[in-house]
């Protein structure tokens, strides 16, 4: 479903990072670990097309990312990839439910209120649907980030440090939700994290 070969990336200041080769099959889960500064976030941005790759090969569901223009990459990401960030940013001028609808619109060009509501319910924040995103706790924001990442039914979910800022109980719950929802939606899951608590949860690991 995803394979990475001979990948490296150079920032303009000359910092160059080389990544190990790896692959992941459909519906599998992979943890990418590494100390601070080893390139975890850079790799995630390359996999999601937020950074244009310069060298090597990234193939996702048969598409070679290096062959796509920035515009095509944006479209590809919207259709295929759900992103969960450590400190997710939402549109605070619209409510929780509308944030999910915006993600649906970006992903597949239309809104489905029933699906959006079900997703919030599954993630245990259905009662927050009409609230402003500013009124959510840290754990609730992470759950909304997962709901938003899944809103357009992506084939690949990429999560950047989704649990690092959470206490043990919330970290466990957020991870379980991420896993459960990925399985339920038939999505492949890649988590990038230095959070030691996650290591025992994954069979497949890549160390940077
Ligand atoms: N915009 C940038 N310009 C130049 N160098 C950068 C830039 N972003 C990151 N780097 C460098 O690239 C390397 C990898 O950074 P990256 O953020 O990918 O690491 P990380 O493993 O995610 O770190 P952390 O766990 O601390 O978030 C580091 O040496 C960093 O200083």
UniProtKB/TrEMBL annotation:
Give the matching SMART domains. Answer: AAA
Asked if the Swiss-Prot or TrEMBL record annotates the protein with the keyword Transport, the reply is: no
Q: Name one GO molecular function term.
A: ATP binding
**InterPro entries per the record?**
AAA+_ATPase, ABC_transporter-like_ATP-bd, ABC_transporter-like_CS, ABC_transpr_LolD-like, P-loop_NTPase
The name of this protein is ATP-binding cassette domain-containing protein
Cellular component per GO, a single term: plasma membrane
What is the native source organism of this protein? Cryomorpha ignava
Q: Which controlled-vocabulary keywords does the entry list? A: ATP-binding, Nucleotide-binding
Instruction: Check the record and name the SUPFAM superfamilies matching this protein.
Output: P-loop containing nucleoside triphosphate hydrolases
Residue intervals of the ABC transporter domain: 2-208
